[in-house]
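Postdoc handover notes: sequence design on the structure in folder B. Input tokens:
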């Protein structure tokens, strides 16, 4: 897992923020590569000490129920909650989005929620009709034209609180009609979440958005 892509350098004199990637499961390397391209130093986070060293954290896709259990067994759940409560910027994609939500529908009873974004998400929401699909989205805060988005057994956001900014929806022409206009990217303060996988398309604009959020924080 520890590939040569990782920059194992603590905070240096440069302005590159150190951004961790929760490395329990999922697209860890892909996120790290995109973060580095977007101007950050990426490091894997599996331990509480590592969590304490980062300026922000990416929670990758995978399986939210599994990641929830692994957060517990790695004794990261409470430290992560504490850092989020202190305002650490975070970006969750897909399963990461589910973890960051206040509530997950169609989840497991014992699945932990980090409650960093005041939203209710539905797991595998598109799945009953379209398991995986791709779509071009306009994302608020991402310039340079539509973003090609890959959805893999993705959630959608069913409900958002007043402090949550909706930054992307599925186009209203998307089939089936149940998928059209669904909320698939949100931001609440310094916490960002996408239902899709921006680490898979070679387009680092979402990671740039997050690196910018971390730099401003
Ligand atoms: N369906 C997964 C979950 O519920 C998320 C899928 C993904 O991250 N690609 O956690």
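Designed sequence:
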């Amino acid at each position: 897992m520890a590939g040569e892509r990782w920059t194992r350098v603590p905070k240096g004199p440069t302005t590159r923020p150190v951004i961790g990637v929760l490395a329990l499961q999922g697209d860890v390397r892909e996120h790290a590569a995109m973060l580095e391209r977007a101007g950050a130093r990426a490091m894997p986070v599996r331990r509480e000490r590592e969590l304490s060293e980062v300026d922000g954290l990416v929670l990758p896709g995978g399986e939210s129920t599994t990641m929830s259990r692994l957060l517990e067994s790695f004794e990261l759940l409470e430290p992560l909650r504490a850092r989020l409560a202190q305002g650490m910027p975070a970006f969750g994609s897909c399963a990461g989005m589910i973890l960051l939500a206040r509530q997950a529908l169609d989840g497991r009873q014992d699945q932990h929620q980090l409650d960093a974004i005041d939203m209710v998400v539905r797991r595998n929401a598109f799945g009953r009709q379209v398991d995986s699909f791709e779509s071009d989205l306009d994302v608020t805060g991402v310039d340079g034209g539509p973003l090609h988005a890959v959805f893999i057994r993705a959630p959608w956001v069913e409900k958002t609180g007043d402090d949550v900014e909706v930054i992307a929806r599925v186009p209203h022409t998307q089939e089936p009609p149940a998928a059209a206009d669904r909320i698939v990217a949100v931001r609440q303060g310094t916490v960002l979440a996408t239902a899709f996988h921006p680490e898979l398309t070679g387009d680092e604009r979402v990671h740039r958005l997050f690196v910018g959020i971390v730099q401003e924080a």
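Context for whoever picks this up: The helical segments are 28-37, 48-53, 64-73, 77-85, 95-100, 205-216. Don't rerun without checking with the PI first.
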